[in-house]
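WARN no homologs supplied; continuing
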Amino acid sequence: MLTIQFVPYGEIENLPSKDRVLKLLDIVKQEKIVLLQGRLKPEEETLLIMETMSQINKSFRGVEICTIYPEENNLQFFNKVKKEMVKFLIGQRDGITIIGPSTVVKEIRRNPNKIELFTLPGMGGMRSKAKPKKVTKKKTAKKTSRKTVKKRTARTVKRKR
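OK structure emitted
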């Protein structure tokens, strides 16, 4: 099952940069996609990448990140001043940041009007409950060539399907 967790900006607003990044990274390490209201500062994004690189192991392979925020280039002077004042007072709440684990998210594409999030097939936290079958070799009295073994294996696999 694919899980998306929304994190409101107010939840991380008062945290120091390091704690903010660690909180988001903890959510991503649970194989959840984070939908963050607002955006991280450039130095926080850098810190997120550095922290991710230090924590990479067999089960955690990294993150994919994308930030989208509205850019209004045709604003009049008064509206620009008003928007900057609001941004100064309430912080970086405009926009959306998406952070997902690389084991789930294949790619995030950003277009002006949409976000395309591509997941890996069969991933997204969907784990099979069934235990894998144990494969054992059968002992044979005579030696067989590699070609014969490959043919027998191929036939066995076809029959099981």
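The radius of gyration is 24 Å.
OK
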